[in-house]
Amino acid sequence: MLTKYILFISLLSLIFVKLPSARSQCVDLNLFDHTQRHGKLCPQIEDSLKKGSSSLLNPIDAPLEQIENNNMIQILFTCDEKNKPELCKKAKLAFQNVANVISDTLDFKVPIIINASFTQICGNFMNCDPTKPGPLGAAGPSRLIPLKDDDGKTRLYPQSLVKQFKLEKHPEFSEVDIQAGFNSEISTFWFRGDPEIGVDQVDFELVLIHEFLHGLGFLSSWDDYLSLDNPTALTPFPSFLITTDDLSSNIGPIKFTGFQEYPFDRYLSLTKDNIPLSSITDKINQFANSTTTFANEKEFTDAFTNSSQYLECKQMLQNSITRNSIVFKLPDDDLYPIETSLVPYKSGSTLKHGDYDSFSNSTDFLMRWKSPRQVTMENLLSVNGNDTNYINPIGPKTLKVLEVLGYTIKNNNNKVQTDNEVKQDDNQHNLQSTSGTESTTIHSSTLLHVLLMTITILLF
Ligand SMILES: *[C@@H]1O[C@H](CO)[C@@H](O)[C@H](O)[C@H]1NC(C)=O
Ligand SMILES: *[C@@H]1O[C@H](CO)[C@@H](O)[C@H](O)[C@H]1NC(C)=O
Ligand SMILES: *[C@@H]1O[C@H](CO)[C@@H](O)[C@H](O)[C@H]1NC(C)=O
Ligand SMILES: *[C@@H]1O[C@H](CO)[C@@H](O)[C@H](O)[C@H]1NC(C)=O
Ligand SMILES: *[C@@H]1O[C@H](CO)[C@@H](O)[C@H](O)[C@H]1NC(C)=O
């Protein structure tokens, strides 16, 4: 019965993908400056990935070096090899190990390309306060791509996830999927082979895995975009405020087309009344429709902060600093508590991680907002609740979050021993893939999801 339903949708998708294509507004993120986001017109194109992944890297002519280690994660590595050959060697090895851990855990359908640099960040990419410890680094999706979900809402998907859906047609991809940059000027990082890890050191590999998961889509869009320095109210991503370099007409009046969620946000819910955050987004988006224009950003902000919708946004800030108020809903009524205990609100940490205390001393320690000090990949016992059986730094609940987002988890018992065995037989069906050329086993709800998105990729 299920199969029939899916075939029906496949047929529909065949009809709809023939619609004349249009251009989508993608968003390219700036790694070290969250205020800088570029709108990017990304025309709908036929899937280039089918032509073979070996040609993927061709467009990048590079002083960048590709680390040859792994078919499913390709790393373009930049480092100051001239001045720091030893350090670069260690960093490169760490990237290789991390690529192996991630590709042993996740079953990528299409290779992920990571632009990774280990360089001086302060002065080059951002200004740093010399009296404070330098930043460790950051990673994130290089491009967010709008796709219409099967609940009718358009969300900004990280490119690495869009690639896994193998859509026949999709907005144009950026050259790389994940941008990652780490600070080579600090002594905080501990590398494999170094003397014993110090009390204030963090294992570089653990930091990398944490950041890569953000790059894959472990990321909420809720933040205070309108008042970054003094958070007062939270909204999803204001994609209507970004300007597009190659679209001069965009510099004119602002059309309110709504705040946009990321796929992660779809599964967030308030604990007190079980209300999905998506319905709060809906309420906030009733502020205006696209027939209303604002002369400039200030005019928009003034009107918005004066609106009844803004009260919802202020309440969201309140929720985000109240412990246990927001959860990520997993299948089977399982919950993944989200970080909402930091007071004051901490942009980049609040809502973008698992709850610190809930995941302390547990195998899901990795996505807490602070990296564990004096802990190495080789021995996670002091941080994972003294569990000798589960040696993967990515915990079972964290994997479920990634699975809900649309990644496929490998059933790799050597590395990953969960107490709840993945119920393969119940959840997976043998289905014809959309390309029609091969038969693949795919999570049925994911397939539905994908097919629906194929039909309705957003046309701006
Ligand atoms: C990769 O990152 C470096 C910064 O380290 C940047 O200069 C370069 O443009 C990036 N390449 C791509 C293809 O995004
Ligand atoms: C847009 O909003 C205006 C003013 O609030 C309203 O008059 C109009 O009917 C709305 N248009 C649509 C298409 O909803
Ligand atoms: C805000 O609302 C008040 C009362 O409704 C109104 O008098 C004022 O002009 C509004 N301000 C802006 C900037 O819209
Ligand atoms: C984790 O374990 C350590 C040592 O056993 C203990 O001091 C700490 O309070 C525990 N943390 C939590 C959140 O249970
Ligand atoms: C970890 O578990 C072992 C045995 O399973 C026990 O001997 C040891 O004391 C435990 N360590 C901590 C810190 O709880």
TrEMBL record:
Keywords of the record: Signal
Start-end of Basic and acidic residues biased regions: 418-428
Keyword hit for Signal: yes
Signal peptide interval: 1-24
Keyword Signal tagged: yes
Chain spans, region Disordered: 416-438
Amino acid composition bias (Polar residues), ranges on this chain: 429-438
Name by which UniProt lists this protein: 3948_t:CDS:1
Taxonomic source organism: Funneliformis mosseae (Endomycorrhizal fungus)
Origin organism lineage: Eukaryota, Fungi, Fungi incertae sedis, Mucoromycota, Glomeromycotina
